Amino acid sequence: MKRHASRTALVCLVLLVTQLSGGLAARAQDTPPDYPVPATPSDYHRPIGKLVPPQGALFGAHLDQSNTPAPEQEEIEKYEADAGRAFDIRNYYYTFDEVFPTWREPYDLAHDRYPLISWGCDDVEKILSGAFDAIIDARADGLRALGKPLFLRWCWEMDGARSEKSSKVGSPARFIAAWKYIWGRLHARGADNVVRVWCPNARGFKQEAAQPFYPGDEWVDWICTDGYNWSPGRKEDWRSFVEIFDAFYTFGVQHHKPLMVGEWGAQERAPGDKAKWIAEAQIAVREKLPAIAAVVVFSVVHLFDWRVTTSSSSYQAFDQWAKDPYFNQPDPPFQPGYPAQDQSPGPGGSGSPPPSSGGGQPGGTPPGGGQAPSGRPAR
């Protein structure tokens, strides 16, 4: 009986040690300091013409959206006052059938910002059947009427597993067909002031789930991605900016496109960790990832708290990033129409213009006339 009890105790001790050692082995780790930086090809150049700064990077934010203008305006203007500058980009979200432009776009354009409209997905088969032509055309007319350039990313994160998107997107081939259909209609109705931003998940590039959704160089102005440091909210490694975005970066430079990080965020861990992460991300974009031409923070509570105001040190790091001259460039050039007229050295052009999908002639005067859109006032 005693021998049996001793044997049982020994087995329990072995199991406990095994569990502890397994737990230690599986413990989340930080990105190592010697993590490799993705290469930038010697022949890479930024194709100038679609709001691409010749050097440096545009800087922007997504903040809380409200049912009324005042809270949104107060928040963005507070951040800008602290930084002593206007942000270049403000990102906001609309469902597919939601009416836009709203008050946001004219407000941002009047305050020296480019809107980044994140336009939701819908059933690609219905899109391709023509069931939503009236919606698409109305959005095109409204955007054209703004008369100034802006960014639009339709069906961002189309490669993800979330049912609200995967059930609508279908296969990569059908998504690409719908992408071309929508942009063809916008172009046909003269909305050539809208810059085409294609934006899967950063994780999708690592898993090679994003690449099959690429519509082709002639159908994309900017390659974008969204990526987050999910630790500690999720039981994942604490990942650096470079580790999160390296696969996206490699794909983007291979296609000689300007790169945008459309959403980035980090959570608080130990005191000072988030601030350090933000400061290192700033350095990574400026010194290691020169093809990234725009960065847009996701500063809201969604699943976890991504706000840059979660601690005074985090906000200070973000504010210092905003004040960095590398991220406060003069207004980038813009030329309406497709493709962009590439003014930079190296291989030029971005392919043939998208074909018409009805309702106008590609490359012609917008319905009802109109002037070519102008850029922001010089700072």
Q: Could you say what the CATH topology is called?
A: TIM Barrel
Cα Rg: 23 Å
For the terminal residues, how far apart are their CA atoms? 87 Å
Reported for the largest beta sheet, the result is: 8 strands, parallel, barrel
Seen as an oligomer or otherwise, the chain set is: single chain
Shape: globular
What does this protein look like?
- This protein has 379 residues and is an alpha/beta fold.
- The chain has one domain: TIM Barrel (Alpha-Beta Barrel).
- 36% of the residues lie in helices and 14% in strands.
- The protein contains eleven helices and ten strands.
- Strands 1-2-3-4-5-6-7-8 form an eight-stranded parallel barrel, surrounded by four helices. It has a two-stranded antiparallel sheet with strand order 9-10.
- Helix 2 links the parallel strand 1 and strand 2.
- Helix 5 packs across helix 7 and helix 10 runs parallel beside helix 11.
- The longest helix is centred in the first third of the chain and has 24 residues.
- The termini are far apart.
- The N terminus and C terminus are likely disordered.
